Records
---
Amino acid sequence: MPKIKLTELSSEYDVTFKEAVEIVKEKIPEDYISGKGKNTWISEEGQEIIKEGLFIDEIIPKNYIGKVLGLCPNPRYSFVYSKEIGKRVPVMIPKTLKGIYIGKNINFEAIEDVSGTSYRHVKKK
């Protein structure tokens, strides 16, 4: 599946182009978006996120890409630095993958609730 223009996606999902741009910039990592204005393209990975229900605001959490720096004191978490967030955050990693991702880039998502924001690893498809 090659890159696709955001104008095509917005017409496919019956959303105005302006709304589509705002949603995509808010929910999809910058690495998956290229171009400006009406010439905005979405990569294959970004299209997968959109197909999961991106245009339904409440369901899909914000996705990020970051580099794993090391393990946290709690072995279920690893410290990850994301340029988009601008700081190091603890990300929940599956127990079987503990320590494997150190020094590598991973996808993760932010989950916001009453107590604050937490982050968890998202498997690439």
Note: The helical segments are 6-12, 17-27, 44-51.
---
Amino acid sequence: MRSMPALRPSALLVLLMAVATAAAQGASQVTKLRTPKVTLFDCATGAKKTDVAQKDFQGPWPVTGQPTADGLLPVKVKDETACVRVYAVETDKVITTSSDCNAVVAANQPKSAATRGVGEDCKKK
């Protein structure tokens, strides 16, 4: 039985450098919209700019920074920077943020097993 040929040291070095560069950059991108329509916000003021429908999504949108305390994620859309709600999009890497305590997502429905812990960190202690 023949064994796999060993990688040349130079090829191994190039591979390791590529993996390290990708990990250091932490690059991420929005790959899909989770809702039929997603609102784009001005990152500086939080004001609504426009809406993008799923059918009009031409992605991926590169993520250009960390999520804000308000749960807005800065992304690049057609050469412009805008922010989207973290929970309204899917990304190729996991992005975490603090709770959006002022969000109204599904009106006033009782908690179920599927929403265990939702809003718990918004309660005053």
Note: The two ends are 66 Å apart (CA to CA).
---
Amino acid sequence: MTTTPQAISTSAVQGSLLRLSERQEVAIYLREGAGWVADFHDGRATLHSVSEWHGSGSGRMLVHAQRRDAVETISPLPDEVVQRIESLHRRMEEPTVGPFVQNSLAALAVCLRRWSARLGLVTG
């Protein structure tokens, strides 16, 4: 049994890739016991929980596409797609702090230092 990071991530994601057109593919898969959908469209990728994706109407759109026989292929997830999916999950898990929050925190730190200095709580 191999335990390389690639082997672990490949086995942790199980699902199918639906090719809707040259420009759009949808991966529906299980990862750590939860259902996910990765939508790859025109070079962009979005990640959704299954319920969020279905609730947005995309799930119903896919069902209608299948009925019209508009799904070109359905295949197991290729390793390259699994790597893209894992990358999406890593980005989703990273904390994002925008410039407004960074500037606000910096201003708050300055105010706290000044306030502490005035009260004599900080020396130097």
Note: The longest strand covers residues 24-31.
---
Amino acid sequence: MRFSKAIAVAVIAVIGLLGASSAHAQATVDKNRSYFSPDQQFGFGVNNRGGHIQYALGPAFHLGLNLSLDLYKDSSRSETYYDFGPYAKFLFSGDVIKPYAYAGVGVIQRNSGKATVSQDTINVQLPDPEIRIVLAFGAEHFFNQNVGIYGHVNLVDAKLSPAPSTTNFGLQGAAVGVEFFF
């Protein structure tokens, strides 16, 4: 009788162990961690405003540096300006198209000013550089881990300096481009 109880306890223990291990056999899949998202890769991109270099810290978070020559024109900017500054991009879960949030800080130098020549001296006066923050929302499609196309719409454009500071909400321009990772 004792032997049959010991066998019954052993069988129940084995069934319990097999059931517990099979319950964890199927792993959770995060769609941002799919094969088509770059992961720990450097890259560069070009868009309608210029270019950028970046690093994919993971499949859902990219850090980069804007290197833009922008031909955008409105009342606060000249026809051409240079935009240099860091940005961060967070990609949300998605299959074919991954939506993302974008935040960038830029030191912007407008391409307008005066140059005067007097005797042997050249004097160039450029406007003060502006510091701007841009918040955008967009989407990206990765063909594979090395190539993606993207587009976003700027929703907030805040000028921090020089005074006066301004913040514009709404459609503040857009960017469409392609990125290459290696």
Note: Residues 2-23 form the longest helix (22 residues).
